[in-house]
Amino acid sequence: MTKLNFVIGCYTSPTSDIGLSFFEFCSDTIDIQIISTLQVANPSYCLTSGDLLLAVNESGTDDDKITVLNISNLSAPKILGQYSSNGSSPCYISADKDLNHAFVANYGSGSLSVRPFISFGILGTKSQVVNELPKANCESNFHAVILSPDDKFLLVTNLGTDTISVFQYNKNAIHESVQTSSVNQFIFKERVGPRHLIFSNDGEFVYVIGEINANIYVFKWNNGILKLKQEVPLMNKDYMGANSAADLHLMPSGDFLLASNRGDANQIAVFSVNKVTGELTYSSSFDTGGVGPRNFAVDPTGNFVFAANQYSNQISIFRFINLPTVQLKLLKNLTLPSPVFIKFF
């Protein structure tokens, strides 16, 4: 019997005080049991590493927070501390493999905050805050911050300026661990709104989703350089509704890429992946069973997809079926107020 743990983050303002909920999922019986809940403000994105969980508190103040938890005992997760995100509306957090630094994308203030780990669950004072100058008539809105697989470069999407900036990262540096000027920057030619990005399993390609135009961009990655290879729409050419593309994930096998679109679509699109070229071929699209799929997660076995439908207050649970054709089969729904993040760990 396979049992998996996962966490759901929910917006707490103004719906509920419960921000984080921990669950156990039995994949054989499709049974879900709640383990514990915790009052954490607006945990819209989380990082897990071993017994640590770090959540950004996207509350829209001038000095939002990062909450650090010990999750070694999921029945009683313990808050170890809260730290400034050094900005407003943090929406993404990541860290290097050895937990030398945590990186926070502050969407509201358009800044990247870098904080060192001092010891288990303890963050030091900020080592850096990196800002990007907005373009004319555009705000700077950092959205995702991802390290390259070798931990040498930091890739940052800016939804407001339509850029992806690549910074050099030195994990051993006490100060200025992130090079303040980007070593490379890709500038999109139109209003794209680059939101989330992921690397292919082999680290050869980068996939970026555009929130505004609902396209996926495929880049060849070469030691800090991004070279655009392909642009693929989530929606067919006859689609006339509003777009608000959100999240993307590869299946564990790397054979398929999934991407969500909110707006009027409320769908997850599935693409097959050519592992040699990195390029995508559209396969099919499926309703998410709710409204506003801001985030979704694929379980480690690649058999299930959990979609967080923010505006219909539910998690829709699908079985991913490959043969003879790709399908997302809705199994059940889990009700929570304003779910915006899911992660298996």
Task: Describe this entry's structure for a reader.
The protein is mainly β. Helix content is 0%, strand content 55%. Strands 8, 9, 10, 11 and 12 form a 5-stranded antiparallel beta sheet that branches. It has a 4-stranded antiparallel beta sheet with strand order 3-2-1-29, with no helix packed on it. A 4-stranded antiparallel beta sheet has the order 4-5-6-7, with no helix packed on it. Strand 9 and strand 10 form a beta hairpin.
End-to-end separation: 17 Å
Question: Which fold name corresponds to the CATH topology?
Answer: Methylamine Dehydrogenase, Chain H
Shape: globular
- The CATH top-level class label: Mainly Beta
Segments where pLDDT lies below 50 for 5+ residues? none
Helix and strand sequence: EEEEEEEEEEEEEEEEEEEEEEEEEEEEE
Keywords:
345 residues, mainly beta, Methylamine Dehydrogenase, Chain H, five-stranded antiparallel β-sheet, four-stranded antiparallel β-sheet, 29 strands, 55% strand, globular
Condensed summary:
This protein has 345 residues and is an all-beta fold. The protein has no helices and 29 strands.
Set down the secondary structure blueprint.
Layout (H helix, E strand, L loop, with lengths): L2 E8 L9 E7 L4 E8 L4 E7 L2 E6 L7 E6 L7 E7 L5 E6 L5 E6 L4 E9 L2 E2 L4 E4 L10 E6 L5 E6 L4 E6 L15 E4 L6 E6 L5 E6 L4 E8 L2 E9 L11 E6 L5 E6 L5 E7 L6 E8 L5 E6 L5 E6 L4 E8 L5 E9 L3 E6 L1
Antiparallel strand pairs: 1-2, 1-29, 2-3, 4-5, 5-6, 6-7, 8-9, 9-10, 10-11, 10-12, 13-14, 14-15, 15-16, 17-18, 18-19, 19-20, 21-22, 22-23, 23-24, 25-26, 26-27, 27-28
